[in-house]
Amino acid sequence: MLAFAALLAGLVFGLGLIVSGMANPAKVLGFLDVTGDWDPSLAFVMGGAIAIGMVAFALAGRRSSSLLGAEMRLPSKRSIDRRVLAGSALFGIGWGIAGFCPGPALVSLGMGEVKGLVFVAAMLVGMGIFEFFERRKRSA
Q1: What is the separation of C-alpha 67 from the centre of its chain, rounded to a whole number of angstroms?
Q2: pTM for the full model?
Q3: Tens of pLDDT along 18-45?
Q4: What's the pLDDT score for residue 126?
Q5: In whole angstroms, what is the distance from residue 71 CA to residue 42 CA?
C-alpha cells in the first residue's frame, strides 16, 4: 500500500509540474532571467508549494505515524552550516545552467526528452560521486 501511495503522490506531483509548466526548462530560465524577459509565474508556483508544505509539515510534526501507518521520519537538523550552503549554491548553479531540478528532470525524462536524459544521467553521476566521498569519509 505504501508503494502505491508513493506512486500516486509522484504521479500527482509530476502532473502538477506539467500543468504549471515547470517541466519546461525555458519557463524556469525565464524566471531566473530577472534582467531580461522575466517570467514571475514560477514564484507563484513556489509560493503555493511553500504554503502547502508549511501546513503539511506542521500537521506531520504532530504525528508519530503517517496516515498509512508508516513511521514519521522528519528532518531533525535545523542549523544552516557550510554543507547546506554549498549544496544550495550547487543546486542553484545547476538549476540556472540547465533549467531543471530533479523533479522536472524526471518528468522530462518520462516524456522522452533528450535534455531530461542528459540531466538525469549527470545528476546520478553527481549523486554517485557524493556517495563515494561520504563513504570514504565515514570509513576514515
Answers
A1: 23
A2: 0.78
A3: 998 888 898 888 988 889 889 998 899 8
A4: 92
A5: 33
CB 28 within 8 A of CB 40: no
Amino acid type, 32: L
Distance CA(116)–CA(95), nearest Å, equals 13
The DSSP symbol for 14 reads: H
Q: How many Å apart are CA 68 and CA 116, to the nearest integer? A: 32
DSSP assigned state of 23: T
How many structural domains compose the chain? 1
SS3 state at 65: strand
Find the domain containing 13 and state its range.
2-139
Could you read off the pLDDT of 71-85 as tens digits, one per residue?
Answer: 888 888 889 999 999
Q: Quick one: average pLDDT of 124-137?
A: 94
* Residue 33 DSSP class: -
